[in-house]
Design brief:
Blueprint lengths: L7 H26 L4 H28 L6 H27 L4 H9 L1 H72 L1 H20 L5 E3 H19 L3 E7 L7 E3 L4 H12 L6 E10 L2 E9 L12 H14 L5 E5 L4 E9 L4
Parallel strand pairs: 2-4
Antiparallel strand pairs: 1-3, 4-5, 5-7, 6-7
Helix pairs in contact: 1-2, 2-3, 2-5, 3-5, 5-6, 5-9, 6-7
Length: 348
């Protein structure tokens, strides 16, 4: 079963094309070839083609409301046969009623009934099959739209899941640090809790923001770095080089924080010396490019983490841009580990 509202636009198109075209053909045929009067030619053409157009409109809307799932062609041909037969004899009835005194024309009408029926059948069948195809394509398009909507909802749900999973990932690490500070430096622990509360408050405010500006993201990163500086004190130095033209560029929210967190984690591992974490932002070929660098010692065995942060970022980028190359990691010649993030920018 297919339930659709009456398609007035489609009805008018089908009816007008068939009606006007065949009115002209029949008028010229009857008048010049069969030598009938203008009145007979015009009336015959109008009645015959009017009934044909009405049958096509009726067929179009009937198929819009109902099409059998099986043996559709047989159903259409049977319905076409009935309609063609009905309008052939209905047109004959009306024309005989109007021109009963024109015996030559009545004889022609009787002789041409078979040809008229075939013409009616062919055109109604063509109209019916065209509508079947139209409705099938329309139904396929609606199915694709529903599938696309479902995929978008699924992608959005996964993006939200990844974004919200990153928050407890950071929170657990911060709480562990707070616990350690309460033992060795309670005052710093209190400061860190205050900064952590401000950071989480900012996180809640931007919870529904999928896209943020670089300026907003760097402000967010600044809150995070304040917390990390409490944790690591003088051991942690931050170098920020943010090009001015990038401040209004857009990137997915909370995307940069896990990268900076990884840089701090692996940069400080197995060393008591002070380190510098560098963050660069620039515009290259309509891409926002952010590079995060941290010290790297190839002779040191790094701790094995879950790898959740970078994995979640790669997944988010793939869902947003369908490109797996937007997040790259590399080791420079200066023993600096680089994480490069590229965000395509839309042209206004």
């Amino acid at each position: 079963m297919i339930n659709r509202p009456l398609s007035i636009t489609r009805v008018k198109k089908v009816g007008s094309v068939i009606f006007l075209g065949w009115v002209l053909v029949f008028v010229l045929l009857f008048y010049f070839t069969l030598n009938f009067s203008w009145s007979i030619a015009i009336v015959d053409s109008v009645i015959t083609n009017g009934l044909l157009a009405l049958a096509c409109m009726l067929m179009s809307n009937l198929l819009g409301y109902y099409q059998p799932k099986n043996e559709t062609i047989i159903f259409v041909l049977a319905l076409t046969f009935i309609m063609a037969l009905f309008i052939t004899f209905m047109s004959k009835f009306l024309l005989v009623l109007l021109f009963s005194e024109q015996q030559t024309y009545i004889n022609f009408l009787n002789i041409s009934l078979t040809v008229r029926f075939l013409i009616m059948f062919v055109f109604i069948a063509w109209c019916a099959l065209a509508n079947v195809l139209w409705y099938r394509l329309e139904e396929q398009s609606a199915t694709q739209e529903r599938l696309l909507a479902a995929q978008n909802l699924s992608k959005e749900a996964e993006l939200n899941k990844l974004r919200h999973q990153l928050q407890p990932h950071f929170l657990f690490n911060s709480l562990n640090s707070v616990y350690a500070l309460t033992i060795v430096n309670p005052k710093e622990a209190g400061t860190m809790i205050t900064k952590l509360a401000a950071f989480l408050r900012g996180t809640l405010k931007r919870d529904d923001e999928v896209w943020v500006s670089v300026a907003e993201e760097m402000e967010y990163i600044g809150l995070y770095l304040d917390i990390e500086k409490v944790r690591f004190s003088h051991r942690l130095n931050i170098e920020l080089q943010i090009a001015e033209e990038t401040l209004n560029l857009r990137l997915p929210g909370t995307l940069l924080q896990p990268i900076v967190e990884n840089a701090i984690k692996f940069g400080l591992y197995n060393t008591a010396a002070a380190i510098t974490i560098s963050v660069f932002a620039k515009l290259e070929q309509n891409h926002l490019v952010i590079v995060v660098q941290n010290p790297y010692d190839p002779e040191m065995k790094a701790t094995e983490g879950t790898g959740f942060g970078l994995t979640a970022i790669r997944r988010r980028l793939y869902l947003l841009f369908a490109d797996e190359r937007l997040l790259q990691t590399d080791v420079s010649t200066e023993n600096r580990f680089e994480t490069t993030l590229k965000i395509p920018q839309q042209n206004d």
